[in-house]
């Protein structure tokens, strides 16, 4: 089992819908990243968070360290939000300290 | 003015050849990384450099060697290419490294290059 699990794997939504993508992890972490990979392949870092909540425009990311869970929310979704959203955690311990461990991504498609 | 630039964007080559992918960042970041994204779109770190020092080295084949002539460049050399090396390789940088410490907010946000798609025939 992967140390970082995302759900759902695929998500189709209508324009305007509120979207939630979930990320659960099993390792101790010092930070969690949300990344966006565009259909053309480019990757953009959206958030890095270690506690609480961050907001940027229509995007909101939350993390619960005790429950080892993070969510990425998109309000008033738009077709241009269509992309793969990737959760990645920065391991806190052991030989992989500092490495980013990636989830397999959630492919979001927003229909007009 | 691209922050992290990789060249080439596409590379098609034969098995057994040696090839390089170049990466340059103009952000003044301290740390640069190479990631591999396989055919299933799964990203995995290969290694990173901080001030010319290798600080993370995942168990990648020694046919892969990172070379950093200066803080702004981290090139990826691959010898004796194999079919399984076909993937998209992403370069990235961050202001500080990801290993330990307590960096200021935003310091570890990664900036990615556009990716280099390598196809080995």
Question: What characteristics describe this protein?
Answer:
heterodimer; A: 112 residues; mainly beta; six-stranded mixed beta sheet; five-stranded antiparallel beta sheet; 11 strands; globular; B: 121 residues; seven-stranded mixed beta sheet; four-stranded antiparallel beta sheet; 48% strand
By DSSP, the count of extended strands of chain A is 11
Strand content of chain B is over 45%
Low-pLDDT regions of chain A:
none
Please trace the helix and strand order of chain B, writing H or E for each element.
EEEEEEEEEEE
Q: Quick one: biggest sheet of chain A?
A: 6 strands, mixed
Count of extended strands of chain B: 11
Structure, explained:
The complex is a heterodimer of chains A (112) and B (121). Chain A is built from no helices and eleven strands. In chain A, 0% of the residues lie in helices and 60% in strands. Chain A is mainly beta and 112 residues long. In chain A, the strands form two sheets. In chain A, strands 2, 4, 5, 9, 10 and 11 form a six-stranded mixed β-sheet that branches. A five-stranded antiparallel β-sheet of chain A has the order 1-3-8-7-6, with no helix packed on it. Chain B has no helices and eleven strands. Chain B has strands spanning 4-7, 10-13, 19-25, 31-37, 43-50, 53-57, 64-67, 75-78, 87-94, 111-112, 116-120. Chain B starts with a strand and ends with a strand. Chain A binds chain B through residues 30-31, 33, 35, 37, 41-45, 48, 84, 86, 88, 90, 97-100, 102, 104-105, and chain B through 40-45, 55-56, 58, 88, 90, 92, 97-100, 106, 108-112, 114-115, 117.
